TrEMBL record:
Residues 100-229 form the PurE domain. It holds the Pfam family AIRC. This is Nickel pincer cofactor biosynthesis protein LarB. SUPFAM superfamilies: N5-CAIR mutase (phosphoribosylaminoimidazole carboxylase, PurE). SMART domains: AIRC.
């Protein structure tokens, strides 16, 4: 790859890589694996590994593992062997330098892969997270238990499909920032997460922030921005 004069932006044979992003905004460029050819993916990963900071690869198809396995000691969220549609890969995570943590509450265990995408990003940047699965409002007693367990969190990331109600409940119960992630989990008029997203966007809970459908990555990035000013 060749570096352009401005801000560490580099251009390879198959794409561009923003090597200066972490210096500008505190977070490295994430390599979005879905849709990239094998050659383009390897080129981006090899260039990212030339740097000294954390490396993030999102929406990685585990069937392509042999392409990258030998290139770095990877953390995989979830593990490669767990037969998920996609995983998030992390190399060279930063050491944790704060006791502050982000709570990740997932309404159902079917939201786990998206929740782990958020956890991967936080781990890469040295931020501890506490993940609680299956705490949705269909049995609201478990929601209350989860909120009690995570009461010291600085930020809450809340993932929910179906009608997306968990985000409103959490945002009505805590004073810390709440980031809702509608997920594509649910039957019929759940419409691949559109109903959950509309529900969160029309929430009566004041100040609830909402990401796009299944965007655990974006939720973690938002949490990191909030933490940087707290």
């Amino acid at each position: 790859m060749q570096e352009t004069p401005k801000d560490g932006l580099r251009r390879g044979d198959l794409g561009w890589f923003d090597a200066g992003r972490r210096a500008r905004i505190g977070m490295p460029e994430a390599i979005y694996a879905a849709g990239k050819s094998d050659a383009a993916l390897v080129e981006m990963i090899d260039f990212a590994l030339e740097g000294s900071g954390p490396v993030l690869v999102t929406r990685f198809d585990p069937s392509r593992w042999e392409l990258v396995a030998s290139r770095a000691p990877w953390l995989a969220f979830p593990g490669i062997e767990e037969n998920s549609d996609y995983v998030t890969l992390v190399a060279r995570p930063l050491d944790q330098t704060t006791t502050k943590y982000v709570a990740i509450l997932a309404a159902g265990s079917s939201d786990r892969v998206m929740a782990l995408e958020a956890r991967a990003v936080l781990t890469a940047l040295g931020v501890h997270s506490h993940l609680i699965l299956d705490c949705g409002v269909s049995a609201i007693e478990r929601t209350m238990v989860a909120l009690d367990e995570a009461h010291e969190a600085e930020i809450f990331i809340v993932l929910a499909g179906f009608e997306g109600a968990l985000a409103t409940v959490v945002a009505s119960m805590v004073s810390k920032p709440v980031i809702g992630v509608p997920t594509s989990v649910g039957y019929g008029v759940a419409r691949g997460g559109e109903t959950a997203m509309a529900s969160m966007l029309t929430s009566c809970a004041q100040g609830l922030m909402v990401m796009g459908i299944d965007n655990g990555f974006g939720a973690a990035c938002a949490a990191l921005r909030i933490l940087s000013v707290r």
